[in-house]
Amino acid sequence: MTTTTPSTRAGADDADGAAPRGFAARVSLGRVFAPVPSEFLLIASTALLLTGFGLMMVLSATMAKSIALGESPFEVVMKQAIFAIIGIPLMFVASRLPVSFWKKIAWPALILATCFQMLVFVPGLGVANDGNQNWIQIGGVQAQPSEFLKIALALWLGYVLFRKQTLLGSWTHVFIPVVPVGGLVIGLVAVGSEDLGTGMILMAILLGCLFFSGVKLRIFIIPLVVVVFAAVFFAVTSPNRMARIMSSLVNFDSMDCYNAASGDCYQAVHGIWALANGGLFGLGLGNSREKYGWLPARSNDYIFAILGEELGLVGCTVVLLLFTVFAIGAFQVIRNTRDPFVRIVTGGIIVWIVGQALVNVGVVLRLLPVLGVPLPFMSQGGTSLLSVLLACGVLLSFARARPQPVLPAMAPLAPSSPRRR
User: Fold this and answer.
1) 266-278 vs 340-364: helix axis angle to the nearest 10?
2) Is 14 exposed, middle or buried (0-12, 13-18, 19+ CB in 10 A)?
3) Which pTM was predicted?
4) Cα distances (Å, whole numbers) of residue 248 to 241, 245, 363
5) What is the rounded CA–CA span in Å between residue 149 and residue 388?
6) Half-sphere exposure of 362 toward its Cβ, with a 13 Å CA cutoff?
């Protein structure tokens, strides 16, 4: 009788080549279909739901104007949908990239995004909109480069502060190169923009990354004072910005608020009226009254007002809950990571996306002056949607990289002693 030893059997399998290849294929498929962490599901699901919600509201807010201009009612939303179709697969592709990739591209990303931002000052490329020189026009495509500066700045700050972890007890290492480079990036945006909002979001990203880096509070105060001083300086040196700030302080009883021709708080008042018209359950999807020419920024900065008018307090609450779930998922990434780079970049992205959402809602509720920031995922603007989805891809990549729990090794069973008869 021939006995096949394990080595003979292994050699036969190696000769056939089938068994090792089949095993490798099973391992590869297992990695692809392996269960993902809960924070991955929270971030991905809320990003998809908010994007779908946003496309629906952009369609509702713009179809009346499109029909009045003799265009298709789907003209605007189809352009937004193209960026969603590009951004969602890009988000999942980015989620497969390792953390080391994001560390390597931190410097190149910031340099490329800064050069991209400088194109707004090139004659023939830069486009002014409501006094803001913050867009570029290439053919029929219009883009806002400052949106990509947000994610590039978060990655760069994460990498620099990660490399300086042991030196953050000294204020000079905190200050250089974070504040000078951050000031250059923010200054490029503030120079061409009459809206202070984008510059303030970039400042918040800088402060958020410093906070999550674990820098001491006494040292954190230095860049905080610099940021506050810069915000005040950019506000008081622009008549347009000061007018926006002062309009938020005007009483509703003032006649300026009802003057469509010259009232600085005209749009802010109509945003409040839209929310008031919606009540608890809203007028119904597509039934907004303010979108018929009364609310100029109905599809971008004031889309939350249209949401409140059509879907009421219930619809607004659902959207705010989705942003809350998104924040919970992102904070879970911070909680479960051991990598300072992941913690810092995730903190900067949270401050950007969730903070910008709170600022947008605060503007619509007239708690803040008109700052000109869109509602992430939902406002019209392909560049904004694309950058936010890419940032979500970075978070998903970090969620996949969380350390897996190590299962305790099972002790070998002791051989049973033979029974005596």
Assistant:
1) 90
2) exposed
3) 0.85
4) 11, 6, 9
5) 11
6) 15
pLDDT tens-digit series, residues 198-222: 889 999 999 999 999 988 888 888 8
Residue 102 tokens, joined? 């994001």
Q: Which residue has the tokens 């608020």?
A: 257
How far is 20 from 3, CA to CA, in rounded Å?
A: 22
What is the rounded distance in angstroms from the CA atom of residue 227 to the CA atom of residue 175? 12
∠ at Cα 290 (289, 294), nearest 5°? Answer: 130
Query: What region, left, alpha or beta, does residue 160 occupy, with left being phi > 0 and alpha being psi -120 to 50 degrees?
Result: alpha
CB atoms within 10 A of CB 263: 17
DSSP H or E run through 133: strand 132-138
d(CA 37, CA 45): 13
Q: What pLDDT does 418 receive?
A: 52
The residues pairing with 138 across neighbouring beta strands, listed in sequence order, are 141
Where does 275-367 show beta strands of DSSP type E?
none
Q: Name the nearest CA neighbour of 55 among 32, 15, 88.
A: 88
Q: Closest Cα to residue 353, out of 212, 77, 154?
A: 154
What the block records as the tokens of 388 is 């936010």
At 367 the three-state DSSP class reads coil
Q: Which two tokens stand for residue 304?
A: 């939350």
Half-sphere exposure (CA, 13 Å, Cβ side) for 132?
21
Place of tokens 């952009």: 58
